[in-house]
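pls design
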């Protein structure tokens, strides 16, 4: 089965491809020759994931999925959440998002946080949603060079290293995105034996 992954984020594509392996053929938007920026105007990860997969499905008629992630910080009542990509403002860098987060949490002892990912899959016009959560904490200084986004300041529960100090395979043991993708793969495997009506 061929699936388009409706994202412009090359790190997400790399993580999902490493996790799914050759179980399914996954094409990024770039590989599918689609150059599009899809707005994410909604207040929930699920609605933003839906609009991305629906847009690409309507454009191509090909089975596809998209994913939206938020970093939910307890001391900030779940913020930046759905606004994680533009926390420091529209067009700001990730460095600036991290700086803003560390500044707001400065001196706070409560640093619990989680990454939450929502995947929207559309096959034959029917949508299914999957969720993946990774609990952890925000550390006081960025550490590590790997990964992307908030990875240098996020340490998952049960680890002492930040996500940015781990390889993709190591991050994958905790990764919110791969947890949601594991549910998606299990679902696709049931379709292999029971095709949709
Ligand atoms: P899409 O094209 O898929 O929308 P995006 O980069 O805009 O890609 P999201 O809106 O899902 O991605 O993500 C919100 C922000 O949260 C994003 O800018 C990321 O940098 C950050 N983020 C998402 N997943 C992350 C991860 O695994 N580790 C660190 N930061 C992450």
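designed seq:
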């Amino acid at each position: 089965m061929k699936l388009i992954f409706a994202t412009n984020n090359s790190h997400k594509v790399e993580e999902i491809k490493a996790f799914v392996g050759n179980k399914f053929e996954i094409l990024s938007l770039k590989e599918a020759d689609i150059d599009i920026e899809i707005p994410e105007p909604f207040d929930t990860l699920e609605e933003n994931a839906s609009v991305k997969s629906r847009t690409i499905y309507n454009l191509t008629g090909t089975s596809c999925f998209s994913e939206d992630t938020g970093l939910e910080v307890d001391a900030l009542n779940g913020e930046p959440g759905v606004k994680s990509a533009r926390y420091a403002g529209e067009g700001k860098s990730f460095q600036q998002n991290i700086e803003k987060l560390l500044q707001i949490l400065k001196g706070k002892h409560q640093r619990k946080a989680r990454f939450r990912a929502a995947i929207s899959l559309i096959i034959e016009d029917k949508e299914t949603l999957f969720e993946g959560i990774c609990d952890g904490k925000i550390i006081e200084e960025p550490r590590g060079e790997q990964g992307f986004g908030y990875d240098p300041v996020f340490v998952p529960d049960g680890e002492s290293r930040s996500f940015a100090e781990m390889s993709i395979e190591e991050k994958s043991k905790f990764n919110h995105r791969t947890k949601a993708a594991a549910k998606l793969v299990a679902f696709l495997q049931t379709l292999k034996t029971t095709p949709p009506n």
